Amino acid sequence: MERESLIVRSSEITLKGRNRGVFEKQLLRNVTAHLAPHGAFHIVRGNARLDISGEGDLTAAADILRGLPGVANVSRVRHVSRDLEPLTGAVLALVDATLAGAHANGRRAPSFRIEVDRKDKRYPLQSMELAATLGEAVLAAHPELHVDLSRPDFTAMVEIWPQEALLFPEKIPGPGGLAVGSSARTLCLLSGGIDSPLAAYLLMTRGSPVVFLNFHSFPFIGEQSKEKVHDLVRFLARFQPHSRLLVAPFAEIQQHIRDKCPEGLRTVLYRRMMNRVANVLAEREGALALITGESLGQVASQTMENLRAIHETATLPVLQPLIGLSKQEIVQRAQHIGTFPISIQPHPDCCTLFQPRFPETHAKPEQLARAEAALAVDALVAASVAGVEVTDYGPQYYPAGW
Ligand code: ATP
Ligand code: MG
User: Domain 186-393, what architecture?
Assistant: First the structure.
């Protein structure tokens, strides 16, 4: 019986030796969670792969799955007979469908390749023999086509299993990396900018479930800035099964810094206070590290001296996955993952509030200690923590067709 399904191949998992089962189960849990709001799917775990079928929409499911950390690639496959005659017929049908699709899009697709992967080594034909036999059948039916092994216009991929053959036109690449949940939790300081959403994404692809923390200075900064951060988290929720956003009030802290501390130190002092609030919330959320979107030298607050001054107030390691990237590289990657259009909406971040005319680029520890002696640091941190708003997002927010 012919049926269709999605094959999700997992990445890196094969490298993990005895832990492999643990990683595969994590990917299975994530796939199950991400598909659950989108239809009734039947998921079967195989060797470094999942087979997904059911009544749900497979096109929409493929779209969701190709974004998930831990996914190497996704194929929409037809399960067909592995006997030569029906298999040849199925390959010809796939070629016809591909040519019709190319034609409808006004493209010509004159060259092709057949790729055979013999999962069952007892199959009577060698991979090369089977590929050649199927290729000849395609050429006989379509004399206008030719074989191109290195740069074909389209490919027909065949996997031979003991009971059946799988037939598919492509492997849609996923992000690779590790399934979220394979590593410990982290807390990302998320502004509405371009950098920090990418930083969070990179940690997710290393298996870390990320909790988001944004500082918001109502009423100095409008509600739209907060909405933008919610939009970002709702978007990032497509990459991990559970996304929590914490919004901490920051206006009082900024007013105190404005009124009591040297103007040039403001930005560094803001960021030091953010870390102190983050320390408490990370502990509460069970996070083992903080993440920021800093990139060395990108802005005045990101000189090596200032980064050191900012991060000495963090009790956990501060991960800065973008530290060596240029702005151009960051923009490209943010465009690729899809957060860029949200990030460039022109709503201000609280860091721009009361911005100094001449920001200090080489803040010294003793200067900062003196400045902070004028602040009721613990009380300000406690008040911000007490005012945190919590919102949880899940995979139901995934919009069709991104
Ligand atoms: P981004 O593009 O992430 O906004 P940026 O280039 O604007 O970064 P800064 O404003 O110096 O750089 O911020 C550095 C980092 O501090 C950010 O990447 C983010 O991790 C954190 N941060 C800044 N503002 C906030 C905020 N309002 N809430 C939470 N974290 C923030
Ligand atoms: Mg910013």
Answer: 3-Layer(aba) Sandwich (3.40)
Distance 217 CA to ligand 2 centre (A): 14
Which is it for the CA torsion 270, 271, 276, 278, positive or negative? positive
**CB-proximal residues (5 Å) to ion ligand 2:** 191, 193, 349
Q: Please give the model's pTM, rounded to 2 decimal places.
A: 0.94
Q: Which DSSP string corresponds to 256-305?
A: HHHHHS-GGGHHHHHHHHHHHHHHHHHHHHT-S-EE----TTSSGGGSHH
User: pLDDT at residue 43 above 60?
Assistant: yes
Among the four given CATH numbers 3.10.290.10, 3.30.2130.30, 3.40.190.10, 3.90.650.10, the one describing domain 3-173: 3.30.2130.30
- Choose one of 187, 194, 195 to mutate for the ligand 1 pocket test, by most ligand atoms within 8 angstroms of C-beta: 195
CA of 196 to the centre of ligand 2 (A): 8
pLDDT by residue (tens digit) across 280-320?
999 999 999 999 999 998 887 799 999 999 999 999 999 99
Residue nearest to atom 10 of ligand 1 (CA): 351
Specify the residue with its C-alpha closest to ligand 1, atom 30.
189
| All structural domains of the chain with their residue ranges | 3-173, 186-393
